[in-house]
Amino acid sequence: MPLPWPLVLTRTVSSTTPINAPTDAVIQYLHDPDRMVSGGSLVIDRKVDPSNPLKYTITDKLDVLGLWSSTTTYDALFEPKDEGTDVTVNAPMGTRLQQRWRVRGKDEGSAEMTEDVEVQALFFFMPYILRTMIKSHREGNERIRAQLEGKHVALKRLSSRGDDPYGLFHLALNRRMGDPINVDPKTEWLNMGYWKNTSDLPTACEALALRMVQAARPRPNGRVLEHVKHPFNPADDLRFDTILALDCAYHFQTRKAFLQQALSNLAVGGRIALADIAFDDLTLDTHRSKLIRAALRMMPSDNVWTKTTYVKNMEQIGYVDVTLEDITDEVFPGFVRFLKSRGRGWWAFGALMEVYFSAGAKVRDGRILAALLERRQLSND
């Protein structure tokens, strides 16, 4: 059953692009799904459904706060129309886009292309989705215009703060009580935090980062990769003594591929430390857990690992001295309490996160076994 408002919001975005090309040429372009998909500024992979040439599975590469990158894979169904095309997108986390391109003649030999997009998404992700979509679609429409006008366009991807895909989301959470709302906060942390002896997000986020660094035990004057991009650039031959992945690996496509690449980029005797999420062995396959994970889809299904599977996969990849520490009591409860203290909207999201955490958790002696601090050590062999 779909989640109700205010958890799910609907927004509509419209744009108009003048094109100095005949109307028929613009419509013909829009009727070519492969050309449309390949022109996407975020697209890194696309596959056509063998049974339906108008249905594509598309993978986009996304920048996260300008610090690391992740990917998302979704289905897109194209429906050519007399005056343009319609596209229905079903993406993770229950996100759905209804896109409508239409073309009309303007002056002789020129046309006007309009795009209307209706977005349905969890309110928590709506700022990110809108900013990312508006920027990428603007670039895509500019590519269409440039190609039809016989011009070459080079579009620069920016990673400055002004293009932060999360918008004001993380800034709002970093703002301490009493801070003026018209002044940016002093920090821009974005992780679930380590909430022992604090109720303040920046302090909790810094504590989780420091705890992960302490677990990694970096070598003095060693080479450290602090924020991980996935996938690694295969042309890079750099070797790191320490790799840190703070509250991000469960988003990657896939975590296993990331860990394999990380191993190949570690120096002999190096370590990788992660603040990550795994699930309790006894509750992962329960009917309730499966229903909640299927409804919320907060991580790729390939990344849904139990604690036992996590250690086993690490060892199969080639890591040794794999240790795992459960820090749930100092992470999830404090994070949820903090969210619920920030107003009605954040209270609702905190409650939603609480439900998701319980989907892979077994409550034992008051402990929710889901959030983990992982430390990985590479053999000296």
Automatic annotation (TrEMBL):
Transmembrane segments: none
InterPro entries: DUF7053, SAM-dependent_MTases_sf
One Pfam family from the record: DUF7053
CDD domains to which the protein is assigned, alphabetical: SRPBCC
DUF7053 domain segment(s): 14-148
Official protein name in the record: DUF7053 domain-containing protein
Organism in which the protein naturally occurs: Schizophyllum commune (strain H4-8 / FGSC 9210)
Lineage: Eukaryota, Fungi, Dikarya, Basidiomycota, Agaricomycotina
